[in-house]
Amino acid sequence: MAKENKNCNLKEYSFATEEIPRLSINNPETDKRIADGLPVVITDSGLVQSALHWDLDYLQENIGDGKFTVYKSNNKRFQYFDDKKVDSCKDFQKPMEHMDLTFSEFVSKLKTAKAGKDRVYLQQALNEGVGKRIVTDFLGFNWSWVTEQQKKNKFGALTSNLLLIGMEGNVTPAHYDEQENFFAQIRGYKRFIMFHPDQFKCMYPYPTYHPCDRQSQVDFDNPDFKRFPKFKDAKGYETVVGPGDVLFLPMYWWHHVESVPEQGHTISVTFWYKAGPIGNINYPLSPQQKVSMMRNLEKMIHQALNNADEVPEFMQNMVLGRYTDPPS
Ligand code: SIN
Ligand code: FE
Asked: Which tens digits make up the pLDDT trace of 62-91?
């Protein structure tokens, strides 16, 4: 469904990508990929079938008069940042503005945004505040399938269903999440570019204490290969999801997300699950386990030093000339 609408408007990047498979819910390979922690687009899960009629008018009428989290950006990038880490990071410029708007205020901003300027992106967890019809649609999600997946794969608790409404062309820059995600597309088309957790070294994440923790420092539109030389070796996967598609987005997989230009706004809902319990440790450790370990060590060092400025020299002293290649 999604495929024929793609390609024409999609930007080319410096790295090569392979297609993520699009499979039926009945194909045994689908369950195998989910169990193996590999991305897959499930084309016929019916996960959000009951919401495929959602559009801006319907939502405006039924979603309730509460306030919604909306981000505003003066360019197409909507780079997430952690507000709690802003104060300890001097010179940090917030990449986007957080606003609390009613749904109608959001819709009017979405309709009046000029090309490339004052873009908006609604990102709000679906909660009790929503109207009756939305509750009915929500209860009609294919909970039996997704809960069976949660159980079979020993995922932890469902943490949230985030409603995302983006303008065409909006970009969520590359990052990884520490939760499993079934990403359900309801309206419009989203392109996902993904990288395996073993590509960590190519992606150059910000330090863990930085507000942009878990995000790549590399600007895909204009990669600085001097600072980030290994980004040249990055090998990605990609897909375009359309209405009814569900992408399994495994924990620690890097993802860069674009609402496909010239295809209208996008509506999506995430199903985020906590990581399951850590079972027996088997060696060699998986790339995911190594990323988690690196994060914990990095956080410990930062906490112990109690000063972000001391972290780089401390880390270098630990490895330079001992664990690094000799200079050639
Ligand atoms: C997006 O759809 O723009 C971002 C979703 C995510 O990062 O999980
Ligand atoms: Fe994400």
From this structure: 999 999 999 999 999 999 999 999 988 888
Same domain assignment for residues 292 and 254: no
Query: Are both 234 and 304 inside the same structural domain?
Result: no
**Residue-wise pLDDT tens digits, 294-317:** 999 999 999 999 999 999 999 999
Residues 189 and 298 occupy one common structural domain: no
Distance (angstroms) between ligand 1 centre and the Cα of 124 equals 12
In sequence order, the 6+-apart residues with CB closer than 8 A to the CB of 285 are 293
Which residues, in sequence order, are bridge partners of residue 256? 193
The reply to whether the predicted model has a pTM over 0.85 is yes
Mutate to test the pocket of ligand 1, among 183, 216, 239 (most ligand atoms within 8 A of CB): 183
Q: Tokens at residue 302, please?
A: 């930062």
Q: How far is CA 253 from CA 216, 279, 293, 300, 314, in A?
A: 12, 20, 15, 23, 28
